[in-house]
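Tutorial handout. Part one gives the primary structure; part two gives the three-dimensional structure as tokens.
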Amino acid sequence: MLQASIPTAPSSRSARPGGRGLARVVAAAALALAALAVPAARADTIPVRSAELRIEEGEVLLNAEFDLTFNTTFEEALQRGIPLYFTLDFELTRGRWYWFDEKVGQTSLTWRVSYIALTRQYRVGSGLLTQTLGSLEEVERYIGRVTSRPVARASDLAKGTRYEASIRLRLDVNQLPKPFQVNALASREWTLASDWYRWSFVP
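Part two.
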């Protein structure tokens, strides 16, 4: 008949090496938890240099400037024939204490950026307007500067009322080819956007 052997308690001398091993395991676990606690690197952010509204000839016009910079991933994608799309989002709202904020104006503007290998130039298109530029730095300045863009009608605003304007510029990954859309969700190199920039406007 088999008999189960009952282990005897280790002596204090034999327990010391095990104690050191346990301490090493605890220390390693603590380091691993500390590594997990470190926040992941943020996606590239487009700084907003300035933004303002003015009323002219019955229209609310937007001026804005972004510090847009393309990383090497975007540059290589363009040179391989992959177009990039950048979208400017704008909202104008009026606060209401009794209900949700009233959205007075909302508009989006999208640029399509492509590279012409034959002439080594960049083409930027928005709607029916197309511009050919000689360098990526020119493309960054062209998209990053919005001048006198109509965003609302002045007649829709009440004089002396405070409104909140919001603006952001982002790479529109939804318009990338499907394989790159999947890659964009997993890689920070394919994420480029500004935070929402907000300011008050009183007509």
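Part three, for discussion. Confidence is low (pLDDT under 50) at residues 1-19, 25-43. The radius of gyration is 28 Å.
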